[in-house]
Design brief:
This protein is mainly α. Helix content is 64%, strand content 11%. The chain contains five helices and three strands. Strands 1-3-2 form a three-stranded antiparallel sheet. The protein is elongated and about 45 Å long.
Length: 98
């Protein structure tokens, strides 16, 4: 079994905040959840969870299903890995052209 803290640390290495990493891992585990469920499960303060989820959505890591309550769903980890890889390649190309 994969240690959750180890996965969170690896995601932090790709530029996610601790809360973003915890929220993403939680959503991968739960498949779909409300902000309240994510807050409770990942131990993210409720005052911060909506901002964290908004940033993950902007980065393309999660999808938001509007409603009352809104539901959040993680994209497939391999799809997210592809996004991270593209971002890393872009950064390397920028560095090389300096």
């Amino acid at each position: 079994m994969i240690e959750i803290d180890a996965v969170v640390e690896k995601l932090r290495g790709f530029g996610l905040t601790p809360y973003e990493a915890k929220a993403f891992v939680t959503l991968v585990h739960l498949s779909e959840a409300s902000a309240r469920e994510i807050s409770d499960y990942a131990k993210i303060p409720r005052t911060k969870v909506y901002d964290v989820l908004k940033k993950l959505a902007e980065k393309g890591f999660i999808e938001v299903q509007p409603g009352n309550p809104a539901l959040f769903r993680a994209l497939e980890p391999l799809e997210v890995a592809g996004k991270l890889q593209q971002e890393m390649v872009g950064r390397i190309k920028e560095f090389v052209t300096l």
